[in-house]
Sequence to fold (275 residues):
Amino acid sequence: MRIGVINSLRPERENCIFDRVRDMGLKTCQVSSWNSAYLSAELAAKVVSQSKASGVEPCAFWAGYCPPAKWNFTEGPTTLGLVPREYRKQRVIDLKRGADFARMIGVRAIITHCGFIPENMTDPEYQPVIDAIGEVAAYCKERGVEFWFETGQETPVVLLRVIEDVGTGNLGINLDPANLLMYGKGSPCDALEVFGKYVRNLHVKDGMTPTNGRELGREVQVGKGMVNFPKLIPRLRELGFDGEFIIEREIREGEEQKRDILETVRNLQAWWDGK
Fold:
């Protein structure tokens, strides 16, 4: 098993990009940034050199985009991903910069949230979103990079439909099982039966379903939420999953987060072995 964490790229970390990951005894990570203007060739060179020096190999680049981005049911549909028309053009540019950066640092894919994609394929807003995703996916493909959707705002069947409709052959899924629950989009185990063959990475994150119609469910420590990891992970193995397990704990970096991550590392091997 290749187990890692999400590791954000930011100026104060430029000279010790992978120290946090290495200090937890981990060998891989997803690197991330929400600022496409920060993604320079100089930064890419630092990522490559420090990766070699630390023994930590990034597996994908989590590519953010220009604000705003509101993680809720009220403002989320009009601010997230490639769905809002007023931000779409700039975000296509941002994601293309992410693809260029992914190529420079030698990772397989970019990952992002594409937003609340319309469930009704006859919705007049559906095709423009497909076109924007297709433009980014084609740009990625020209550079030997894949484009992975992080689950969250879409139902599993919508993601499957988008992959089929875009049809560039380089699309995949970064499965975040907690997000499926927190957005009320379905069971992670059931989702595997819909799009399991497209899962390329797993965010090992846990959460709860919403308790009212206006607020997302909450994220919790892995093993204390509603994700059935003892069932999910063996099923991924049956489906031939060979990607990385990227632990995500959405609390402030520090000793509590580190403790939770290391406990999850121990549990992952047992779940993979079906224990």
User: Anything to note?
Assistant: The mean pLDDT is 97.
